[in-house]
Design a protein that fits this description.
The strands form eight sheets. The protein has a seven-stranded parallel sheet with strand order 13-19-18-17-16-15-14. The protein contains twelve helices and 35 strands. By secondary structure, the chain is α+β, with helices and mostly antiparallel strands. The protein has three domains: 204 residues, Immunoglobulin-like (Sandwich); 278 residues, TIM Barrel (Alpha-Beta Barrel); 140 residues, Immunoglobulin-like, CATH 2.60.40. A hairpin with a 4-residue loop joins strand 28 and strand 29.
Length: 689
């Protein structure tokens, strides 16, 4: 898709005061300029108005897609400006509520001096004013409107000829029906109002709630739980849940209750154990290895279910004297079930931890783009061994790869987190710090002379302190949003891998994200590829058979006729078979596990061990029985009409199943596409268990 075609997707017409009538545009001209920009195009403080006036988004369920609304002050300016969003009306009366549209006002910060420019393929954009801090309209934890803080999102004023921008995150809830949704943004001021239409196309698939791309992003200052939650909401994991900085000596207080809260509320998935060796950069000195018991004791303090790793050392590739001691760290760690993370390129001296198993001393190698390129052969070796390779970013250390300073293009963030990670088989992302705030972080993002003689605007500062905007946690930057969107891009490829189309997906993204030197600078090209991937997944799942219902959905008694309704878009005759499993879990062992063969019209019941099947014809006088249930052929049947088929099962459950059991259903069509087992109801069985 060409850039102009991409932008035209955001174009229709302004809807001003009153209704739009095609021949009456001049009479109903909007009272001030409002236009739409895609998320990857930043507006300047005085850019001329654009022509796109309708927001058009494509998203999966569980996906968050963003758009920007830009407002320019007319002669005399604007006062008391407020922005709101309507509900989104979709197919079958389904509504995505306006509460799922999160609004922020973008602020501009001044980059006084450009980031270092090495005159290569990826150069900074130079000094000037950049949109980056995001002021939330509502509290991210409570949903309450924010007002009265030092920096308010609204109401606001816009001077004549100046631009104000609104960032809008549109989250598609996981129960949303697939199809077209419509709504609007309303920009109201004392001088009038403008309505901006919003069109959302929801694909028929869902992004996982748990990010596939692992990550570790560090807070160095003590922050409340809500700050950690804000990071996780952007699909990025805090390095640890504590008030310790990465360089603090162990032990670091573990907060298991906070971990549990974050796991349940926003999806925390991993944490660092915080046994820091002290070795980093030019400091080739490492403390003694903690014992196996120390690692085990530390691991036991954390919540079950978290992926545990230890960030042991940083940039020690030249510290060959440390390799024997690092192997001892790794050996003890591995015996305690912990993965070892080290920032360095793979080296053969560390391809064995000394256990004799062939396991590397480093489980997670974390590399800069230039480190990756210098060790491409060794990276291929460790990937083949089963090690993980992550990428990270800091400062401006080469002339070609993506950079995370404010004065680089938004694509730098998004591609590294998304399609470049997929192309290069990277499975994680690390950033050394997110909260390196100046004395006035909302206005001062420069750091001339801190890291070197140059300026690295925004380095180690992906969030802004929340107190100034009236929240307890932190407010995001636009750069944090770009990383989140890259994480979501990564999921599209992972889903295609899971349905057997991974090679096609990797070939498709190769055109825009081949490696650290070859990646697009065109946001339209990225969006075109994302939509191509999404449409491919949508087509796959739209062709899937579906489970419509089970009745009764809350069965009771020893005997029931279960009616299971399933469907297929190609018609009921395209259905191959249906599994119904009654039991406490989706396990064929010790269950009432039935298969209906739609082609042959037969019913099968698994044995107690779930490793063999007995068969009868549906509607026959035969009976199948195991220790959990009895299936009668008489009273069991299947009938279809249109796209739907109803399978009726005459079932009796044995007293061994006394209590409440779950009813799971799985359906497969003739093309081999399956739904997976889905819990569709319960069955309460009388009698003593």
């Amino acid at each position: 898709m060409e850039k102009q075609e991409f932008y035209s997707a955001f174009r229709v017409v302004f809807l001003g005061i009153g209704l739009f009538v095609p021949g009456a545009l001049l009479q109903n001209a909007p009272p001030f300029a409002v236009w739409v920009l895609p998320s990857l195009v930043r507006v300047g403080p005085a850019d001329v108005p654009g022509t796109q006036s309708t927001a058009s988004l494509y998203a999966a369920r569980g996906d968050c897609q963003a758009v920007q609304i830009v407002i320019q002050g007319p002669a005399g300016g604007l006062s008391n400006v407020r922005v709101s969003a309507s509900d989104l009306a979709g197919p079958g009366g389904y509504v995505i509520p306006s509460a799922h549209i999160t609004l922020y006002r973008e602020l501009f910060v001044q980059v006084r001096e450009s980031s270092p420019n090495w005159n290569g393929a990826n150069q900074p954009l130079g000094s000037g004013w950049y949109a980056d801090p995001l002021v939330p309209f509502t509290d991210p934890d409570t949903g309450a409107d924010l007002n009265g803080a030092a920096i308010d999102a609204e109401p606001f004023s816009v001077q004549a000829g100046a631009n104000a921008a609104i960032w809008a995150d549109v989250f598609v809830d996981r129960g949303a029906a697939a199809g077209e949704y419509t709504g609007s943004f309303i920009v109201a001021a004392d001088q009038g109002s403008v309505t901006v239409p919003l069109a959302l196309n929801v694909w028929n698939f869902e992004l996982p709630a748990t990010p596939s791309l692992k990550s570790s992003f560090a807070f160095w200052t003590p922050v409340p739980d809500s700050a950690l939650a804000e990071l996780i909401r952007h699909r990025l994991m805090p390095q640890r849940v504590s008030g310790c900085s990465p360089s603090s000596p162990a032990p670091c207080p573990v907060l298991p209750a906070v971990e549990k809260k974050l796991m349940d509320s926003v999806g925390l998935t991993m944490t660092d154990l915080h046994f820091w060796s002290g070795a980093s950069g030019g400091n080739c000195v490492m403390g003694p290895a903690p014992s196996v018991a120390q690692f085990q004791a530390a691991a036991a303090q954390h919540q079950p279910g978290l992926f545990l790793f230890n960030y042991t050392a940083d940039e020690i590739g030249n510290c060959t004297n440390l390799f024997p001691l690092l192997r001892q760290w790794a050996l003890n760690m591995h015996q305690a079930g912990i993965d070892n993370l080290v920032v360095m390129a793979p080296t053969p001296e560390l391809f064995d931890d000394g256990s004799g198993t062939g396991r590397s001393a480093v489980d997670i190698w974390v590399v800069l783009p230039k480190m990756y390129d210098a060790a491409a052969g060794q990276i291929a070796r460790v990937l083949q061994k089963g090690d993980s390779v992550w990428s990270y970013n800091s400062l401006v250390q080469d002339s070609y790869s993506p950079k995370w300073e404010i004065d680089f293009d938004p694509l730098d963030y998004r591609l590294q987190a998304g399609f470049l990670s997929e192309s290069l088989h990277l499975t994680g992302l690390l950033y050394w710090r997110v909260d390196r705030w100046s004395a006035n972080p909302w206005t001062e993002v420069n750091n001339e002379g801190v890291f070197s003689s140059g300026n690295y605007p925004g380095e180690a500062m992906l969030v802004y302190p929340g107190a100034q905007v009236g929240i307890s946690g932190v407010a995001p930057s636009m750069r944090l949003k770009y990383l989140r969107d890259g994480e979501q891009d990564y999921e599209y490829v992972e889903i295609l891998k899971s349905i057997g189309q991974g090679d096609w997906a990797l070939q498709t993204i190769h055109n825009i994200a081949a490696d650290w030197s070859h990646w697009t600078r065109d946001p339209a090209a990225l969006e075109s590829v994302r939509r191509k991937l999404g449409s491919q997944i949508d087509a796959y799942y739209t062709q899937l058979p579906a489970i419509v219902s089970v009745s009764p959905s809350a069965a009771a008694g020893a005997t029931q006729t279960l009616n299971v309704v399933v469907s297929d878009t190609a018609g009921y005759a395209n259905l191959a078979g249906v599994n119904v499993l009654v039991g406490p879990t989706v396990d064929g062992t010790g269950a009432c596990w039935i298969y209906y063969d739609a082609t042959g019209g037969t019913l099968s019941l698994a044995t107690d061990r779930g490793d063999a099947w007995n068969q009868i014809a549906a509607g026959s006088s035969g009976t199948l029985q195991n220790s959990q249930c009895t299936l009668q052929g008489a009273g069991s049947s299947a009938a279809g009409s249109g796209n739907r088929m109803t399978l009726s099962l005459n079932l009796s459950l044995q007293p061994v199943f006394a209590g409440q059991q779950k009813i799971y259903v799985r359906v497969q069509n003739q093309q081999g596409k399956v739904t997976g087992y889905q819990a569709m109801g319960t069955w309460t069985v009388p009698g003593a268990p």
